[in-house]
Amino acid sequence: xxxxxxxxxxxxxxxxxxxxxxxxxxxxxxxxxxxxxxxxxxxxxxxxxxxxxxxxxxxxxxxxxxxxxxxxxxxxxxxxxxxxxxxxxxxxxxxxxxxxxxxxxxxxxxxxxxxxxxxxxxxxxxxxxxxxxxxxxxxxxxxxxxxxxxxxxxxxxxxxxxxxxxxxxxxxxxxxxxxxxxxxxxxxxxxxxxxxxxxxxxxxxxxxxxxxxxxxxxxxxxxxxxxxxxxxxxxxxxxxxxxxxxxxxxxxxxxxxxxxxxxxxxxxxxxxxxxxxxxxxx
Length: 282
Fold this sequence. Notes:
It is built from 2 helices and 17 strands. The chain has helices at 139-145, 239-252; strands at 13-17, 23-27, 32-34, 38-40, 46-49, 58-62, 72-75, 85-90, 103-112, 120-130, 160-164, 167-171, 176-177, 203-204, 218-222, 259-263, 273-278. It has a 4-stranded mixed β-sheet with strand order 6-10-9-8, with no helix packed on it. Strands 15-17-16 form a 3-stranded antiparallel β-sheet, with no helix packed on it.
């Protein structure tokens, strides 16, 4: 009988011919016969995480970075011969683009191996997202890669960015109120910073302060009232008329909450007269 008729149909199978010239086939050492898959190694395969430099099954990232799926390697002698499938499940939905929230999530890899007991193996990757200081970001860089993390404080209104764990706040200066964020700016509902109230900026709530400039009291000087030249001469007979005129002047000068003091110099012919305006209330 030709030898090729006794060739094994499975690479993990060994066939021999006895003295009776009858073929006898069996699985190689370490393998067992499976009705559907032939000679198989019942030892479950070993899964190893790709990109696990510390060997602690943990991938550490920072806010603003993106998660890249590295997958796993499968150490298994049957990897080329038997049908297997791998399923990847995330504990939380992955956000599109950059990672904005501090925390952690898990990636579970399950490889189906129906010829083993149990019929699957699994391994889990832990992904940790660490905090960054949003207030010191390179705005030009993150505007391209992760604009969601750029602080939107109204610095022109005096607001100051203050970093918090996983977020930031915009603090308004003293004597103002508001949320400190750019006016009418809005964020996605699931990515709003701490203290955001719709973009109210910082509004001044203090009363204005009025400060007087110059000396107090203020002294004004006017020309002496000597009458009209040629009509009202500076003579003793005109004193009564001059005094009458001064009374009319005083009745026309009215200042609320202010006292007007008229100083008439002792001698009628003095070079000038002085009005003193003070801030003493009546």
